[in-house]
């Protein structure tokens, strides 16, 4: 499947051990006889020349000998540090199996143990105490490079494990390459080390980050702004991807910079976009509209709010509903109960204001001992058609909640999205049983199919951000758009929804199978780039009609090219 490409030819200035230790250029035992002679490798490699297929077979056998996911993650990280083509070629052959090893959920464990697993530095680390040399440090790694993607994190809110101080976001970049074809040489992962409030890390003498309490307030904002302005100055056309920022900063920073540069927050916009795509597929099954639904979102953090805003914006754009009216279709519930004024300002973040429900609406609704309206009472009163969980509160969608919802609509749309699987709001099998097979389901973690009353399998869609965010990013990079607009994100979600197997068979998943992620993300990227042209914010000179051809041409593939020694470059 992946062989040496006669079309790829490179002039390479590295020789000998330097070439063999460069993950970008190393081929290992795949170097040809002539290349071994030209690059001084004959005595440095065993005699046998292997194909990429043989190398992948060997690497996969080695991988399978590792027992635990974290051991497999460590092996793959080591492989990535040795040979990019082999690493991505192996992943491409086993996407469903290995994505969960290099990404969610295993990567969280790897980050949690980052300081103890640390072997080799990857990406860029910009630390608060060294901010005076930030520009110099940044240029040292990026000067002369065509950086198209920067994934940055301050590691305050890593999925399931919270504040980790330093948590390099290289896994996110790897997914961009695996599923969208972003050249790994043009991507950069950046850790913005502003300290940590994690006492375990602060007391760990092996912790590799800056051992100080997390910087906040004005000093934090200045540090982040200095970094963003460096990007705008030196890499004006790259996509800046914010990852794992805390709830107090994620939405705020996105809103602050999204009109200045092409920025994207996967926790907010990626989660919102993939959920929107699943919703569009679901309403395609029910033959209704987004504006016809009543939405209850359980969990009002970055993900829940991101979903509410993304769906709200789609209702405005697609169905032509005024913003204020669209806002009224949403009921947000968090750990304090339904979001309404009587909770008080300390329990309602400014970003939630548009979705606060008037107290007078709930005067006839029972409250708990803390004076809060609980989820069941919200479901009973609202009779939602859509119930979304982003709470990490396992089992919150009880049988009573689900059956009450079913009483109010024929085909309830239920998305328990919390990760990992033990934190899911309801097991999709239970939701299917309690609704007599009528629920339309999507989850945040992979689940096996469940049985319908007629004995058929119902495929549970995995509402995984990786089905869309690489394509959203690639579309922005491809068009060199000055912003990542709401219209671009909605266009990507619409294209993903159009690929839903459920539109042909209601018992199939609402989203494409994860194995089809590369093809799905290419379609998303094309839609996003076309929308950038429609909005007139592209930064390229070619035409809208060329988008698909340019996308296919630009994609990086894990192929070995032919090397010619560049003597001039080696001097």
TrEMBL record:
Active site: 103, 172
Malic enzyme N-terminal domain: residues covered: 80-258
Cofactor: Mn(2+); Mg(2+)
Protein origin, superkingdom: Eukaryota
GO biological process: malate metabolic process
Organism from which the protein derives: Suillus luteus UH-Slu-Lm8-n1
Entry's cofactor comment: Divalent metal cations. Prefers magnesium or manganese.
Positions that bind a divalent metal cation: 243-244, 267
This protein's GO CC annotations: cytosol; mitochondrion
Name under which the protein is recorded: Malic enzyme
NCBIfam families xref list: PRK13529.1 (NF010052)
UniProt key word Membrane: no
Keywords associated with the record: Metal-binding, NAD, Oxidoreductase
GO molecular function: malate dehydrogenase (decarboxylating) (NAD+) activity; metal ion binding; NAD binding
UniProt keyword Disulfide bond present: no
Malic enzyme NAD-binding domain segment(s): 268-533
Protein family according to the UniProt entry: Belongs to the malic enzymes family.
Entry binding sites for (S)-malate: 419, 464
